[in-house]
Amino acid sequence: MSERRRPVDRPRRAALDVLTAVRADGAYANLVLPQVLRKHRLEGRDAGLATELASGAIRMQGLYDPVIDACLTKPRLQPEVRDVLRLGAHQLLSMRVPDHAAISTSVDLVRASVGQGPAGLVNAVLRAISRRGVQDWIDDVAPGRASDLHGHLAVAQSHPRWVVDALADALGADDELEDLLAADNAAPRVTLVARPGLASVAELEAAGGSRTPRSPHGVVLTGGDPGSVPAVAEGRAGVQDEGSQLVALALADAVLEGRDETWLDLCAGPGGKAALLAAIAAQRGATLVANERQPHRAALVASALRAVPAGVAHVLAGDGMRPAWVPGVFDRVLVDAACTGLGALRRRPEARWRRAPGDLGQLVALQQVLLDVALESVRPGGVVVYATCSPLLAETTEVVQAVLARRADTVEVDRLQLWPHRDGTDAMFAATLRREG
Ligand SMILES: C[S@@+](CC[C@H](N)C(=O)[O-])C[C@H]1O[C@@H](n2cnc3c(N)ncnc32)[C@H](O)[C@@H]1O
């Protein structure tokens, strides 16, 4: 068959559809991927290949773009052609795809998606990239490691420079920085939670998994589709990072004197932590109010809670800044605030490129108000856990410090900061605060 008429392989076509949706429509890769896989009827290894191609090309574009640019003779490139080149660069520099296969399939792809015009350019650029290994390219296009470590890692590990700087601040030193950034680039394992009283860890282990080291409710799946595990399909278990389980447990296990009957999850959508908390509350004879501002996310919370016994959990769709309850009624409150999400980069390939330092001001203001509401909602003597899936100091310790500075009635009693490279979890933060009686 001639070059021109060779059909484009479906995993690569699907991967390009994901890149296009993320770039042109602002889609989230993890949400659009299942739709694209269905559209192209991809399963098993082909689905795995399309997922790796799309996720890797989006995640690593901070390295691939300067490499591509170094191979261009003219600086301008159509966005659609750059997408094809990013996919080709990922195959050449980070996967075990033979060079000839990576190049010829990319040429086929650009012919089918853009036209014959850029086929020669794609061929020439990818041939140039294939002549050197990834470390040679990093040495060529990244700032020097000795003179500008953060600038070097921003390219070598494909993170925006401001994110590298902010993560280094959060770590407090540079010695683990590269490990952290590399961990952000590795696909996370699928972790399940057995909601206590509804499913057992043994039941999930039998589905092909092993226990998580720190959460007593977690199981890491060794393979397969989590949706096909009966306990997950029935809502007795769920997909939940071990770090998120530990945050919910920080609230449930905080030492509390006196009444322990009514719990609040102030920002509950989509409901992972609410479901774990509600299962524990049911075992202790307590109830949970799960509040979420966005109605469609409140519906997801209700779905996550479907296996919890009736009467234990109540879902509210409301703005946590204007509470629908009287102050001081709750014994335990979780405020898992909206944040930059820069602690969960492993599972959101495009997230690092969507955030900007200018987002922080608005988010921090919201986080402070929500923490204040949580502290007003808890009774004297009760506990509040303030959590984020970001380790940035502006969103974590600085929010807690700012709120505590204006409240004489609250003390911090515990703090947790998890890291992907140390703990194998998302970089979750949780501060446990007690409102004094
Ligand atoms: C980090 S997520 C919570 C994740 C959730 N706890 C879980 O484990 O599934 C933050 C949530 O806060 C919600 N949110 C943002 N502003 C809010 C507000 N003013 N009141 C209540 N919820 C809010 C967002 O819609 C989002 O669903």
TrEMBL record:
Residues annotated as binding S-adenosyl-L-methionine: C267, A268, G269, P270, G271, G272, K273, E292, D319, D336
UniProt name for this protein: 16S rRNA (Cytosine967-C5)-methyltransferase
One GO BP: regulation of DNA-templated transcription
Family: Belongs to the class I-like SAM-binding methyltransferase superfamily. RsmB/NOP family.
Family annotation (InterPro entries): MeTrfase_RsmB-F_NOP2_cat, MeTrfase_RsmB-F_NOP2_dom, NusB-like_sf, NusB_RsmB_TIM44, RCMT, SAM-dependent_MTases_sf
Signal peptide start-end: none
EC numbers on record: 2.1.1.176
GO molecular function: RNA binding; RNA methyltransferase activity
Annotated catalytic residues: C389
Enzyme category, top tier: transferase
